[in-house]
Amino acid sequence: MAVLAERRPLGDAAKAWALNAPAMVVIALLVAYPIGYSFYVSLQKNNLKRPRAKRFIGFDNYKSLLSDHAFLSALKVSALFVVVVLGLTVVLALVLALVLNERFHGRGLLLSLALLPWAMPGVVNGLMWRTIFDAKTGALNGLLQQLGLIDDYHAWLTSGTGAFLFTALAQVWNTLPFSVIILLAGLSTIPSELYDAATVDRAGAWRRFTQVTVPWLLHPLLIVLILETMNAFRAFDTIYVLTGGGPGDATTTIALLDVQTVLTFTDFGLGSAYAWVITAITLLISVGYIGLLYRKGNFEV
Amino acid sequence: MSTLVRAPLRYRIPWKKIVLYVLAVAFALYLVLPFYWIVAMSFMHEVDALSVPPHWIPVHPTLENYLGFIHPNDAQQLVGGRAVSETPYSLRNSLIVATSTALLNLALATFAAYSFSRLKFRGSQVLLVLYLLTRMVPGIAIIIPFYLLMRSFGLLDTYLALILSYTTFALPITIWILKDFFRSVPRELEEAARVDRCGWFRTMWTVFLPVAAPGLVAAAVFAFMTAWNEFMFALFLTSTKAAKTIPVVAANFATDFNTQFTVMAAAGVLAVVPPLVLALLFQRKLVQGMAAGSVKG
């Protein structure tokens, strides 16, 4: 018996590592190795167009970022983009999830519709909004004019501010479903006794919301915050198609700048340095988030 | 008793219901109208689609835009011909890549998730967090080495390069979704099978996995969506119709200034249909799966 008790955990461990081996090999080869290698490339002067100039330059790429106008501007655009997209997404997703958590005719249909934007690839999302915001024939112009809200067709995407705001709106439409699903799942786990108790205490709808719903929803809300922060921070495909980063650099996010640097200018060294800054910021946010959950005792694995 | 307390009967306006329905209708319009516009356009002739004021319903409905993907007419061949002719291939490529990704993911994640849900071993927590951390690394950070890696294996412009990269994207989340689902499967089922002298593989195949099917479906749909929607890796790793996926071809429509809006809209609609059908088919399980995988942490 004693022998068995000693052998069991060891057998478990061996079995567990064997079961994890395939996933670990794939991830090590296709993620861990590339991550390490990309850091190495970021320490090089490495441009495909000038293969002879390739050499090791230490942290010079990173040092150059501090005075790199394109980089600083893209970082600012990304930060602002995160704030606007996140704010709109959280408010809209929360209201939609609260609506879907009620019983009413057509609830199933609304839930199906809420999944629609999720099925749309970012590139197609960009195409769709391009036909809608189009200056000469767009649906937005047509609708506003027929409603008598505008006299002439506007070119929505030609001013920096306009392009930025409309790009953010397009992004929000696309990312809404994921947040709604997570919040809805969170809402569905609230025990109804809590509401009953609040009702007995004669708490109004608003107090029930702030004192029962919101505290209970804190954890899913945090998850939405982190996921959408990362999504918005890496936003790229919708913008690539909708504005291409323009006008000027008004919608050039850090991810878009990085892709352009690598793909168009084939500057692998600088591109990798950009990527590492994106990675560092993302990891910082993630670690902060996991720490926050851990302290609240909500993080169980 | 309660009748005594109740206020005298009078007509009360059901504010809550009114607000609920107003919001529901507003959201329904917000969600569906943009998509309706490209669906409507995809059935219009170019002239009607460009009219001012716009036609909200196709006045002379036509299938021309869709048929053009198979047999482009002269005008379609002239403008944006390459993207048009590549669309059917890209749809096929996307289907193959996304389905393979979903299956490969499921295979790898099932083993790993099972170990987390059933076996006690040192380092399990660290390993789980490590899996998740790999997902935090943005794709752009690994695209260059990945490109070089695939080039040295001669895998550029093949399905395998895309399937492998998308598998690493989806794997961490799939493992997390499945581990929580597997925990909800009663242990007694496997113990009963073991008493009947079933081996581990047979127990998994005939008893465990069928019970965990809803979780498997949610995880598979998630992986399929990830692969279907991805653009950056497809842009870097593919160059011909042999492996280009639908987002890459769709982006070609956008950068080509000659493209007809109506053809572009038709391509967009085709790109949304397969994942949409999948999402609607498995709606209930998706919400369940997300609930298990994300809300608990």
Structure, described:
The complex is a heterodimer of chains A (301) and B (297). Helices cover 72% and strands 1% of the residues of chain A. With 301 residues, chain A is mainly alpha-helical. In chain A, strands 1-2 form a two-stranded antiparallel ribbon. Chain B has helices at residues 2-5, 15-42, 46-49, 64-67, 74-78, 81-118, 124-136, 139-152, 159-183, 187-195, 200-211, 213-229, 232-237, 246-255, 261-281, 283-295. In chain B, helix 6 (81-118) runs parallel beside helix 9 and helix 9 (159-183) packs antiparallel against helix 12. The model of chain B has no long low-confidence stretch (mean pLDDT 85). Chains A and B meet through helix 1, helix 3, helix 4, helix 5 and helix 6 of A and helix 2, helix 6, helix 7, helix 8 and helix 9 of B.
Topology diagram in text:
The complex is a heterodimer of chains A (about 300) and B (about 300).
Chain A (H helix, E strand, L loop, with lengths): L1 H41 L1 E2 L9 E2 L3 H6 L3 H32 L6 H9 L6 H12 L5 H8 L13 H28 L4 H9 L4 H29 L3 H6 L11 H10 L4 H28 L6
Antiparallel strand pairs in A: 1-2
Helix pairs in contact in A: 1-12, 3-7, 3-9, 3-11, 5-7, 7-9, 9-12, 11-12
Chain B lengths: L1 H4 L9 H28 L3 H4 L14 H4 L6 H5 L2 H38 L5 H13 L2 H14 L6 H25 L3 H9 L4 H12 L1 H17 L2 H6 L8 H10 L5 H21 L1 H13 L2
